[in-house]
Design a protein that fits this description.
Blueprint (H helix, E strand, L loop, with lengths): L1 E6 L5 H10 L6 E8 L5 H8 L4 E3 L8 H14 L4 E4 L8 H6 L4 E5 L11 H8 L3 E8 L9 E8 L6 H24 L3 E4 L2 E4 L11
Parallel strand pairs: 1-2, 1-4, 2-3, 4-5
Antiparallel strand pairs: 5-6, 6-7, 8-9
Helix pairs in contact: 1-6
The structure holds glycinamide ribonucleotide.
Length: about 210
């Protein structure tokens, strides 16, 4: 099985979706470690409830971003992590850290990239007046919310939407999409080719479009 480490800063509902997927013995992934930069992260509690080893590495305890990232990197390697999933991890990662995990680290972002990078993506979508919004799982590159796109799911934007109602509709899709994307990687069906990801095998059809 693919030995996955999950980095999460907050509520951890995407972590929970991955934990739930792993409860199926046929899911080709084992979550071997969950790491947070924030003491209050409910994600840590979810991991503990699932019997997964956790680490709290507070960014405030380190003099620089590089020093924090080095501590995270060392902990992941000690835990035997072979692949990293960012799940609501709200710290920018240094170029050195990202290079060290290149091709072995993915993120879920609450917009249809390359639209609406950064924070407040649902407000950004409402302000732009788009009629479709969604979420993206992508390989991580040093630039913010950049990197080869692995999977996306779209939802309609409805006339009465607020950022909260739109976020809830997208989140439901995030929980479906993240395990699906991780499975593709673990099964060797997603291969990076330059700036894009090629999907091979039975999943290559419409399953990922929505
Ligand atoms: C999710 O919507 C995720 O896509 C987003 O934060 C939320 C975390 O929720 N991530 C980002 O904005 C990354 N820049 P969760 O803690 O319940 O999974």
């Amino acid at each position: 099985k693919l030995r996955v480490g999950v980095l999460a800063s907050g509520r951890g509902s995407n972590l929970q979706a991955l934990i739930d997927a792993c409860a199926d013995p046929s899911f080709p992934v084992e979550i071997v470690h969950v790491l947070s930069n924030s003491a209050g992260a409910y994600a840590l509690e979810r991991a503990e409830q699932a019997g997964i080893p956790t680490s709290l590495i507070r960014h405030k305890d380190y003099p620089s971003r590089e020093a924090f990232d080095a501590a995270v990197d060392a902990r992941l390697r000690d835990a035997g992590v072979g692949f990293v999933c960012l799940a609501g991890f709200m710290r920018l990662l240094s170029e050195g850290f990202v290079r060290g995990w290149e091709g072995r680290m993915i993120n879920i972002h609450p917009s249809l990239l390359p639209s609406f990078k950064g924070l407040h993506t649902h407000e950004q979508a409402l302000t732009a007046g788009v009629k479709l919004h969604g979420c993206t799982v992508h390989f991580v590159r040093p630039a913010l919310d950049d990197g080869p796109i692995l999977a996306q799911a779209a939802v309609p934007v409805l006339p009465e939407d607020t950022p909260d109602t739109l976020a809830a509709r997208v989140l439901e899709q995030e929980h479906r999409l993240y395990p699906l994307a991780l499975r593709l990687i673990a099964e060797g069906k997603a291969v990076i080719d330059g700036d894009i990801v090629r999907i091979t095998g039975a999943a290559a059809g419409g399953a990922l479009a929505n």
